[in-house]
Amino acid sequence: MLIEGLLSLLSILAAASAQTPSSKRGLVYVPNEKHPNDDHFWDSATSDLTWYYNYGATPSPAFNNNTKFEFVPMLWGADSDPSFLDDVTNLIKSGTNVSYVLGFNEPDGGDNGGSNVDPTQAAQIWIREIEPLKKLGVKLGAPAVTGAPSGFTWLQNFFTACAGNCSADFIPVHWYGNFEGLASHVGQVNATYQNMTMWVTEYADANDNSLKDTQSFYNQSSQFFDRIE
Asked: Tell me, what's the pLDDT at 127?
C-alpha cells in the first residue's frame, strides 16, 4: 500500500539541505503571524515538499504564485464551508490544479481541532459536496479520524451511512505518539482498508522531547514511510 507522508512542522528539519521533490512529501500549513518569514522554507528550491493543505477550501496567499506546490482543498467540518463543491469547482475552472481533496478533520473528536461531526450527517454532506468532484477527475480523501479506537468505529459508521455513495480513493491517517505506536497504527489501518492508498496527514511525537529526540523521530518515521509502497 502506498503511503503519502505528510511532514508537518517537522518538515523544517529536512528543508535545510537540498532534497529531491517527492509526491509523498506534503505540508499542513497554518500561517504564523509571529514568524511569517518561515513560509519560504516550504516552497524553496531545497524543499522536497510538493503539496500542502490548510484546513480550508482556498489556497493560502503565501503560495498563490507557486505552481509546483499543489494545493489540496479540505472540507473541515459540517458547517465550515457549505459551498465547498462550488468553491473547488471554481478553482478548477480558473485553472488551479486540484487533483485531490480532503474531507472532515477528526470528526470523531471535538478537542484539539476535531470537527465533531456525526457520521450520518457527514455522509449526507459528503454525497452533496464532495462526491460530485469525482466527475471532475478529483481523487477523494476519506474523513481523517483520530488515532483512537473511536476513529475506526466512526469510519465504519460513516461508510455504512453512505450506502455505497461515498467513493473515497485514499485514507488519511492521524497519529500523535511514539514511533512504535505510529507504525502499529499504520499497520492496523492498512489491514482494515487493504485496497486503499493511505496518506499520513498529521503526525508527531506528542511527548515533550528535546530537539535531538524530535529529529530522531522525524528521521525514523520518514524512512519508514519511504520504505512502504
From this structure: 98
